[in-house]
Design brief:
The chain is an alpha/beta fold and 153 residues long. It contains 7 helices and 4 strands. The protein has a 4-stranded parallel sheet.
Length: 153
Amino acid sequence: MSEPVRPRRTIDDVLAEARDRLRRLTPQEAADAHAAGAVVVDIRPAAQRAAEGELPLATVIERNVLEWRLDPSSSAALPFASHDLEVVVLCQEGYTSSLAAAALQELGIHRATDVIGGYAAWSTWQREQDDRRAPTDRSQAGGQASPPSPPPS
């Protein structure tokens, strides 16, 4: 007896189904989750991290081994792997990470999710945060505005 034929689906269908199961996080929410104990996992390949940048707080687990490293029943599991682990998956733009987070949920890692916009969104958000913290003329002068420059003679 042959297997029933599964209906054809597009990757957009699969992605939408995966995302329906996730409570996706903004970069700010992901940073807050990390501060509260979540593990941020960067699944991008080494070449992409080298080209686009690294996220220092992330644990790197490339996509091709993700399930084996985080499934607590796997002989290749990392020491912190747990079905109750809060995992925030990060890829470059937030597509592959949605599929990966859904796959982790399939393994029973029910708190898995991903970052909306991926590393690209996180790095943009981080630059904005850094710009807000950058010293201004007022803060460099001990709270007083710098005197105007004298007119040229």
